[in-house]
Amino acid sequence: SSSSSLSSSSSSSSSFSPSSSSNDAMTDTRGGLPDTTSLSSHPTQRFQVLSNSLWAIATLQLHPSDTTGASSTPSPSSFASYRAHIEKSLLAMSSSSVGIPSSHYYPPKCAQEVSNTIWGMARLQWRLGHGVGKALETHVSTSCTQRTMKPQAVSNILWGFAVVLHRPQPSTLKVLSEKARAVAGNMTSQCISNVLWGLSKIQYAPPPDLLHALDERLGHVTEDLTTQELSNVLLAHVRLKLTTQNLRGLVDKVGRVSGQFNAQEITNVCWSLTKLVRHDGEVGSASSRVYEGLQPVVEAWAAGQRGEGLTAKGTALALWSLATHGSKTASRTCLHALESRVPEVASDFNAQEASYVLWALARLTVSPRSPALAPLQQAIIAIQNDDASDPRDHDQQHSPSQPARLPATAARRARLAPREASSAVWALAVLRAEPVEGIRPALERAFVERAALASAAAGRGSGDSGASGGEVDVGLRAAEREGGQAGLGHSIVITLWSFALLSWQPNPSSSSPPSSEAVAEAASSAPPSGFEPAMHQLTRPLAHALSPKAIATLLWASVGLGLRAMGDPAILGAASDALERSADEIHGDGDRLAPGDVANIAYAFARFHHQPSGKTWLGAARHLNRHGSESGGGGGPPSKGASIMNS
After folding, report:
1. Distance between CA 553 and CA 496 in Å, rounded?
2. How far separated are the first and last CA of the chain, in Å rounded?
3. Which positions ≥6 away from 474 have C-beta within 8 Å?
4. Of 76, 69, 82, 66, which is closest to residue 29 (Cα–Cα)?
5. Which of 147, 43, 48, 52 is nearest to 104 (CA)?
6. Above 90 in pLDDT, residue 413?
7. What are the residue ranges of helices labelled H in 326-369?
8. Would you give the DSSP letter of residue 167?
9. Which residues of 273-290 are buried (b: 16+ CB within 10 A; e: fewer)?
10. Pairing mode, if any, of strands 470-471 and 166-167?
């Protein structure tokens, strides 16, 4: 079994000083936020006033989430009023729809004002209201085309957009890329770090000319990179799959400064190096060597010998990296320190982190009595049973290098996606771990909710077309977390195989095939009412996309669990096709059915009272005649069954 990696993030930025101050009351922060009762019902008409106000409040870190007890800390209501006023002003300056002629507005005098505005919003962790991001883009495009930008201005804009989760339109990104290329030769190490981190966070690969200019400048400032900047630059290389002349030098520098990284930086660097190990040539071998040297540093952080120890996210990243490198290169003392850290931070894991920590512990073959396993299961149960969670939300962690300053409407924790649920239950099955009460229904819920979302989408008659601009979740979207339809199919197979291995039967065993009414209901967009109907509804449309081994494992597990709904003719028809195709040997050896797999399919046909065609039986006979002396199959994924999860 394998798993996609956890996402990793880090950011930093600094601002310019404000433009020449105005006497407008909005710039006076001596008593906290401006008195919102004095704010006019009309928007602020000078962009400079708006920019200076945001810069001051962000610099002084005035936010209702502050716990300093300072008298200047605003109340949530006053902050909300101030934020609404700012956004109304931004919208008004880019449109005359509010009743004030556009000639009465004073647009930004320079790119610095726009940069400070976006920087201030990012520092205050704003989630932009409807249309605000587009309004900001209007001002960015205007100020960029009229004047030359300073390196810090363009880097702060890209960094700020990434932090507030706004992906600019392609036209805006093109303008910013051109400006960044023009000033790349004068960029500091921090500017390069923020540009690359921002582009990677909004998932925009820099054009070749910009990448070349940044790489050339990076060669001159590599030794100036702080540990955080080094971590961010490596992170960007991995996220955007960049190959630059200085990549090897960056990896080597990690080894030289390994003892200087803080907790977040060391785990982010481990994540990046783990990805880079797959790189061809010197970069891959250097990454592997440097990573091994980092394990004692990770161990020290995990054991609490430095600072307050690793966070939940850091622990998850470190364990994922250790497991991905493999147990042969893993330091047992480092593993023990991380394993001991898990119970201390388990309640802070999000769904993805908890499931992949379980996956990592299974890959590293910890004891089934490990003290980390029960807290991890309890964390998953708590997330799945939390009504404040939402299956469509995603954990949003931005700029963890700075204290979180989210308003009271902070993003909710996402519940498990099917891929994460399959990783978790696979780990429990492989480790033969003692299940905690409530873990099975919690894992089942991931598939029930996924099926409900599919039903809702079918009912609307249209899917998500994606977003080319506007507010986006720049982490892992639901489809990406599942690996698309193929990934969802393999998640279903792994989950059912694991349930069967654990003898978790959602319903009493039955050999009766599904009724025609049940099949018709599954084919409709009606939301499922339980685990078995959900699995049936999700599997039916993608059964033919499963590999022969996957379909054999699916039927083996379905029979063992008594899931009669999986005896759907559409699913069994996919198994017939798999037999015929495998007999023709159009698949490679890694996907060819073993005799035990053929036996499992035939047994499922009998249990579900399915009579395949003569061609199918002929294919099975030919297959057994040709490969009958081979071993394998007969009980779920064969020894190479990890390929099911690797797909």
Report:
1. 9
2. 10
3. 162, 165, 167, 201, 202, 203
4. 82
5. 43
6. no
7. 332-345, 351-363
8. E
9. bbbbbebeeebeebbbeb
10. antiparallel
CB 235 within 8 A of CB 197: yes
pLDDT digits (tens, 9 = 90+) for 54-81: 888 878 776 655 444 444 556 667 777 7
Q: Using 50, 70 and 90 to split pLDDT, how confident is the model at 22?
A: very low
pLDDT in tens, 511-537: 344 445 545 544 454 555 689 999 999
Among 180, 116, 108, 190, residue whose Cα is nearest residue 151: 180
Strands (E), 383-487: 470-471
Residue 453 pLDDT greater than 70, yes or no: yes
Average pLDDT over residues 213-237: 96
The DSSP annotation for 424-443 comes to: HHHHHHHHTPPPPTTHHHHH
Task: Check if the beta carbon of residue 495 is closer than 8 Å to that of residue 422.
Answer: yes
What number of CA atoms fall less than 13 Å from residue 502's CA on the CB side?
24
Residues forming beta bridges with residue 470, ordered by sequence position = 167
User: Would you say 357 and 3 are in contact if contact means Cβ atoms under 8 Å apart?
Assistant: no
Tokens of 192: 């390069």
Tokens of 465: 């077309």
For residue 34, give both structure tokens. Answer: 């401006």
Residue range 252-274: mean pLDDT, rounded: 95
Radius of gyration of the CA atoms of the chain, in A: 28
Q: How many residues does the chain have?
A: 647
631 C-beta neighbours (distance < 10 Å), count: 10
Chain-centre distance for alpha carbon 629? 45
Closest CA to 6 of 352, 294, 350: 352
Burial class (CB in 10 A: 0-12, 13-18, 19+), 516: exposed
* Burial class of 544 by CB neighbour count within 10 A (0 to 12, 13 to 18, 19+): middle
CB 380 within 8 A of CB 355: yes
Distance CA 176, CA 182 (A): 10
- 573: Cα separation from own chain's centroid: 35
Whose tokens are 């599954």? That residue is 522
Q: What residues have CB less than 8 Å from 66, skipping those under 6 apart? A: 73, 405
List the helix and strand counts (H, then E) for the chain: 27, 2
What tokens does 380 get?
């998953």
CB 118 within 8 A of CB 136: yes
* Two tokens, residue 201: 């966070």
Reference 186, options 154, 163, 160; nearest CA is 154
Higher pLDDT pick, 269 / 50: 269
